[in-house]
Task: structure prediction
Amino acid sequence: MSVKAQFPDESVAGRFVRQGDAFRDWVRADGSSPYAVESGRYHLYVSLACPWAHRTIIVRALKGLEDAIGMTVVDPIRDDLGWAFRDGDGDTTDPVNGFAYLAEAYRATDPAYHGRVTVPVLWDTQTKRIVSNSDDDIMRMFETEFDRLARHDVDLYPREHHAEIEQLNELIYQTVNDGVYQAGFAATQAAYEPPAYRVFETLDLLDARLAERRYLFGRVPLETDWRLFVTLVRFDAVYFGHFKCNLRRIADYPNLSGYLRDLYQVRGVADTVNFDHIKRHYYGTHDEINPTRIVPIGPLQNLAAPHHRNAL
Result:
């Protein structure tokens, strides 16, 4: 029996192969790009459901850039026309450009663009175009280029950890962040099993690493911790069941479970997590995986419970 892939243009022999980012310009503090660091100039379009967008929301909050960089949230239900701005519960209308769909930002930047429209998007209100739709680049811009506008002195990319951050970022991205999607969007058994097993091989390694240190690099959370967090916080709610990554829950890991609660309880982070948007998006949008679009009532997670990580 043939099975239709969730995103046919990103399916190779039943395997999900994510498209590349289309726009990768940079805002530079040193003036070496056309995009200067200016308060109020840039606007962030995000989905609260999307882990890639969630990374940028967290860094914006941790650095205290909310006053300098505006943000608009799209509706969690993505239809055939893509991410939308809608009136209603949560009011996700676009106050900057009056867009009805995020695809309008893509067409304004490149009228010939025909790929999948993704979040996050960093928009330049002066040139009326997308600076970047790369979550990796947007995170790093917020971490390193906007310091003079940041209210909080937080270094998520310290020089002494650059090489190890890049190495661990790559492992976590390939096998966990994108690994759950490779398993969840697989259209054949053969395409599903290898990435699904790799997810848990890496989670096992990370759980062991966290047995002796509070965060991935020691006493404070860095960029890599937040790249991992956005997958962990969605795991039991959607990836375990919806994406069939069900060998173990994060709740079953002695160290990862406490680590997840620890990160969730960092100042400002809980406000960036919206399980209503997360669950409605995944279960209500991926109709090739969940054709009934029924949103499950569980699991019940108490991420505010004590994490017992302080002694590490």
Q: What stands out?
A: The mean pLDDT is 95. The beta strands are 11-12, 15-16, 27-28, 35-36, 42-46, 70-73, 121-124, 129-132.
